[in-house]
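Lecture notes, continued. The same structure-token format from the folding unit now serves as the input rather than the output. Read the line below as a description of shape only.
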């Protein structure tokens, strides 16, 4: 029995290492989790079914439950600072906190429709979208939610997602190919797309560039604010639930296939190309949120929370050699040139905070391979660059006062 347990433990350990770009965090619940929102790499919230609200102050190492006062399913959370945040959910539920979630109180929505997405551009001005299979609902507040008024409450389809660039320009998307746009803060909403797709998420990085994803692998992109759309659908049996970008180049979409296996795609060129990321087996992923190109979380059913500190870009393995090194050292990668993987060895002679970062020839950061405290030892990292183009790359090691940079060549 002990041998079996040890074998299983070893398997789980190896699995955790092999998929180290996305690792499980202990949410403390098996309830379904929906959207998350982070103000920085430490402070964030996740909401979900049965009124659950989770908060972390250490990047998800620990998650604490906050009392919501409701058993309604909660769909979306949005904070504008460490104190003020809002949540929307089923049956017209709107909650607000002014103390970081220690207390949540109800706001009157004026509707019994399910509310799917919420966004504020400042402490006063915010919107919520939702509806049902008969009516389309858009709500707006200009006083922090003290009053919510209908901007749209008419026959139509359920809206799942919205995105505002500023206080006047925004978009919303939902079922039955419905994409709406406003350029006057929501006083008027114009239909800019009609089709058969059921959309789940819309995200714009600026006034022109946006992406919409949804059921059946649908993915459409615009570069002119929504006047025209390019179909980039993946053509597979997958539901894309969430699209998220940290800048005009780096973005992710998350969802699940029809067997409820999680799926995440990433782009580093604004959506021209997408690559799948390796994931530990878990339940369906329904949301994704990043605070920068490296640090992100994904949440889903059965209390699933996944976390990455390297953007989930590629597959990285690390091994430790128990021999004690005599000096700090960064070795030349081997093989070099390489395709698609190469090994990088480094030595640490004292307990140090170590970062190992890959850059392209222009000095743009491609991936952080290591970013943590390391004890004395010799380490070897295997970097997989199957999704990157051929060219010259640089890798830099920082360990205490020690800094070393070397060149490597990816040749396909």
């Amino acid at each position: 029995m002990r041998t079996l347990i040890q074998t299983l433990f070893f398997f789980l350990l190896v699995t955790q290492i092999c998929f180290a770009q996305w690792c499980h965090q202990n949410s403390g619940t098996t309830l379904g989790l929906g959207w998350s929102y982070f103000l920085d790499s430490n402070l964030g919230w996740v909401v979900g079914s049965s009124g659950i609200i989770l908060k972390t102050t250490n990047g998800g190492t620990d998650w604490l439950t906050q009392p919501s006062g409701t058993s309604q399913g909660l769909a979306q959370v949005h904070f504008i600072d460490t104190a003020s945040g809002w949540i929307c959910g089923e049956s017209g539920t709107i909650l607000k906190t002014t103390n970081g979630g220690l207390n949540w109180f109800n706001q009157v929505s004026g509707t019994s429709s399910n509310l799917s997405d919420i966004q504020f551009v400042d402490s006063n001005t915010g919107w919520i979208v939702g509806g049902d299979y008969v009516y389309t609902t858009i709500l707006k507040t200009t006083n922090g939610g003290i009053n919510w008024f209908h901007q749209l409450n008419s026959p139509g389809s359920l809206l799942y997602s919205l995105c505002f660039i500023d206080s006047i320009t925004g978009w919303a998307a939902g079922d039955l190919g419905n994409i709406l746009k406003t350029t006057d803060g929501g006083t008027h909403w114009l239909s800019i797309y009609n089709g058969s797709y059921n959309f789940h998420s819309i995200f714009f990085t600026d006034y022109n560039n946006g992406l919409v994803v949804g059921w059946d692998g649908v993915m459409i992109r615009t570069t002119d604010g929504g006047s025209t759309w390019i179909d980039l659908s993946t053509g597979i049996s997958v539901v894309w639930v969430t699209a998220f970008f940290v800048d005009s180049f780096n973005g992710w979409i998350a969802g699940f296939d029809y067997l409820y296996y999680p799926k995440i795609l990433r782009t580093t060129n604004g959506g021209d190309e997408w690559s799948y990321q390796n994931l530990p087996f878990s339940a369906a992923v329904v949301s994704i949120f990043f605070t920068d190109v490296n640090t992100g979380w994904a949440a889903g059913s059965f209390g699933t929370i996944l976390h990455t500190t390297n953007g989930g870009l590629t597959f990285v393995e690390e091994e430790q050699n128990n021999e004690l090194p005599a000096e700090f050292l960064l070795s030349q990668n081997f093989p070099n040139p390489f395709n698609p993987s190469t090994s990088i060895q480094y030595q640490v002679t004292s307990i140090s905070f170590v970062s190992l970062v890959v850059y392209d020839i222009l000095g743009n950061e491609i991936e952080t391979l290591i970013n943590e405290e390391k004890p004395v030892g010799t380490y070897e990292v295997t970097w997989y660059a199957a999704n990157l183009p051929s060219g010259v790359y640089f890798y830099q090691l920082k360990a205490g006062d020690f800094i070393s940079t070397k060149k490597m060549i990816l040749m396909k």
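Point for the exam: The two ends are 47 Å apart (CA to CA).
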